Amino acid sequence: MELINYIWPYISSHAYLLLFLGMLVGGETFLLPAAYLAAKGALSFPLLFLFSAMATLISDTVWYSIGRFFKLERILSWKMFSKKQELSLKIFSGFQNHSEKFLFLSKFVYGTRTLAQVLSGSIRMPFIKYSIVNLAGILSYLVLICFMALFTKKSLANFDHMSYNEYVTVATFVVIVGIIHICLKKWLGKKILASSSQHGMKSEQ
């Protein structure tokens, strides 16, 4: 706690710059605490939306460009993708048939966002269409996260007398987001596998 109190003045005075840089490289890891701080009133929701969306758009566009100008096999050989290369190829089969849907939903499923951007570029999805679908996914996800942060904060407002209220609120918020991510990941995984199986059967025919 002493360390937090020591660095907090610096963090609070450069909050949006840190949020922007954090979202460029860390994504949801930085969004969750920022959303909670906004729910507390320490940050502005409009500015949170602006800087988070800008950083995510820049990061996603870079990955889209990588997918567009590099061969998919080469990209999947990179260390960050190599461990899940087989799964990535299965996702690619389903992605070709439902690219817009998968791109949008990837925002809500932890661990699939970067791959969705690469695949969008790899299948040569028109950049304007990609940008519209991707932006819709980004804004929808930001709305969901901010709503959950506000809901969690207000729902636990009755526990203000407890000394560990802040920890309870943060933990509850993270658990809720985690459960939603897990459920969506399982659902999307089933959709991808089903789609890739259908694509395989059509190819054989």
Mind explaining what this structure looks like?
There is one protein chain. The protein is 82% helix and 0% strand. It is globular, with a radius of gyration of 19 Å. By secondary structure, it is mostly helical. The protein has helices at 2-13, 15-25, 28-40, 45-69, 72-76, 79-82, 85-97, 99-105, 113-122, 127-155, 165-204. The longest helix has 40 residues, at 165-204.
Key descriptive features of the protein:
205 residues, mainly alpha, single chain, disordered C terminus
Summarize the structure in short.
With 205 residues, this protein is mainly α.
Largest sheet, in brief, is: none
Portion of residues within helices: over 70%
What string, H for helix and E for strand, traces the elements in order? Answer: HHHHHHHHHHH
Tell me how many strands there are. Answer: 0
Query: Mean pLDDT, nearest integer?
Result: 75
In one word, what is the shape?
globular
Distance between the termini: 64 Å
Class based on secondary structure composition and strand pairing: mainly alpha
Give start-end ranges of low-pLDDT stretches.
Answer: 199-205
Query: Which percent band covers the strand fraction?
Result: under 5%
The number of helical elements comes to 11
Radius of gyration based on Cα positions: 19 Å
